[in-house]
Design goal:
This protein is of the alpha/beta class and about 290 residues long. It has ten helices and twelve strands. The chain is globular, with a radius of gyration of 20 Å. The structure holds adenosine-5'-diphosphate and magnesium ion (MG).
């Protein structure tokens, strides 16, 4: 029974709703490499169940932000709070944090000498405390989930890029993460295999997985994201719903970036989007 069913008509019920749990919070994060400011005063929060897409030009700090989110990169100033813990604090178990934040990279980074199944079951059997048999059972379940049960005994070199990336997603899921971080997961793929990876990501989002996704797949961001964060030169220049960012961005640099990718913003009175022909041809997206 929900709080709403106890309420008289017209009584405000918002205050009874539990506030969503923050999984990751960036508080004024700055990251400097030598003389280069990769992130400048970046603040945002991702709450449980949210899908947040990070977009922006190459070199704008998106990957650095992802890597700071799970402690792969330390911050120069500011704080990253992961599930209530400042990850720069002393005594923080960064390995434990990375297990709670599964990461998927552009280039899959599977172990070439291990089968698909073993790539997935390795961490649960080594770090997760499962027997090899139980870890393999979990891995097979995950291969079913990403649509590749028949590839269990194949080595990565025998798989297409899209299949390797689906195995990499299964591997990241094997430690039962609370958060999934995706860094341009489809950028290295042949166009015909992009859709199968986006489908798996779409399915995860529908199941309620919290996700931060760096992507240039604007169709995906438009359809799946709850929120879109636009980076430029290490700064967040605009944040909004996909509708706002893709149809009514207010910051000129956002509009410029999207138009480089073939997106043309419409006036608010029109709901149709126009795309450049080369993007229409790929027919991508988890339909
Ligand atoms: N380990 C590093 N050492 C030095 N500079 C880096 C390092 N990682 C990233 N950078 C620089 O930081 C900036 C932001 O990079 P990155 O976060 O990879 O951007 P994006 O993912 O948006 O393309 C770039 O100028 C990049 O060259
Ligand atoms: Mg990057």
């Amino acid at each position: 029974m929900t709080a709403a069913s106890h309420q008289e008509p017209g009584i405000e019920i918002e205050s009874f709703a539990p506030s969503p749990r923050a999984l990751v919070t960036f508080e004024s994060v700055t990251k400097i490499f030598g003389h280069l400011v990769a992130l400048r005063n970046v603040s945002f929060r991702v709450t449980e169940g949210e899908v947040v897409c990070l977009i922006g030009p190459s070199g704008s700090g998106k990957s650095t932000a992802l890597r700071c989110a799970n402690g792969l990169e330390s911050v120069t100033s500011g704080r990253v709070i992961f599930e209530g813990t400042d990850i720069a604090a002393r005594n923080v178990d960064l390995r434990a944090i990375r297990q709670r934040a599964g990461m998927v990279f552009q280039n899959f980074e599977l172990f070439p000498h291990l089968t698909a199944l073993r790539n997935i079951s390795l961490a649960p059997s080594l770090a997760g405390g499962l027997s090899k048999q139980d870890a393999d059972a979990v891995a097979l379940e995950l291969l079913h989930k990403v649509g590749l049960p028949e590839k269990a005994d194949q080595y990565p070199s025998a798989l297409s890029g899209g299949q390797q990336q689906r195995v990499a997603i299964a591997r990241a899921l094997a430690m039962k993460p609370d958060l999934m971080l995706f860094d341009e997961p489809t950028s290295a793929l042949d166009p015909e295999t992009i859709g199968e990876v986006l489908n798996v990501m779409n399915q995860l989002a529908e199941e309620g997985m919290t996700m931060i996704v760096v992507t240039h797949e604007m169709d995906f961001a438009r359809r799946v994201a709850d929120r879109v964060i636009v980076f430029d030169h290490g700064e967040i220049i605009e944040v909004g719903s996909p509708e706002q960012i893709f149809e009514a961005a207010t910051v000129p640099r956002t509009r410029e970036f999207l138009s480089h990718l073939g997106w043309h913003q419409e006036s608010p009175s029109s709901s149709r989007r126009r795309r450049k022909n080369k993007h229409q041809k790929t027919g991508r997206g988890p339909e």
